Amino acid sequence: MKYLYYPGCSAESTGKAYDISTRTVMEKLGVELAELDDWNCCGATSYFSTREIDSFAIAARNLSIAQQQGDDDLCVICNACYTTLAKTNRYMAESAHVYEQVNGALNAVGRSYDGTKPVRHIMDVLINDVGLEAIESKVTRRLTGLKVAPYYGCQYSRPIGSFDDTEDPQTMDRFFEALGADVLTDFPAKLKCCGGMMMLTNADVALRLCHEILKSAKDMGADVIVAACPLCEMNMEGYQPRVNSAFGTDYNIPVMYFTQLAGLALGADPKQLGLGMQAVSCAPVLAAIPA
Known about the structure:
The chain has 13 helices and eight strands. It is of the alpha/beta class. The longest helix has 18 residues, at 52-69. The model has no long low-confidence stretch (mean pLDDT 93).
């Protein structure tokens, strides 16, 4: 089983642990990832509101490279990258204007794109291609008794996602149930926005949004929050001290990439999962997983 792999720019900086743990988990599951050659930033979702065609062209350059590099589907780990690349495909298929303008920009650098490269979220690949039964068979340390709050975030399945329900996604719940965890399936904040890039432009609002998510997880007795987006993970984990300062709270909740926790269940060493990069210690999580 092989896929082209688009890490995204966060996975080379603040979200490096996501990239490290993704490669480790996929290797454990016998999935080959071939990193996309000379990829560029997807442009992220906010750029669409200011320079739409430019945004499509930036994303389409990656898709053009993927189409040229092979027939394998393109696997993406960041929610925002997934949304941006999948949105580009949809708009190129539905709008002749977008198709022509994007290819006009690509032609200027000797490229073209027909809008048909399959873009897959990593969880889509794990659930629908690898399969829960096969994943469960590889588990060496079941997450028995660990209370896991799956945090999907606002762009995991909305607005483009086709592999899960847009308003009540369940794939991460099912995934961690297969790993033996006590999944908080009724986690009410699972789709709330973490504030995203507002942490740099309107921190008060972003901190309040993170506070609401962390409070919900704490109230439910979560041992750990798992995320599938580098920005979500950074906001909820790295900014916990600022949330505590702003709201008089004492949150110390581990926030992990879902691939990090999955990697532990699959027998990977913490160093292979980038767990030493966490701002909030994951020691309580490691101690809670049966040997």
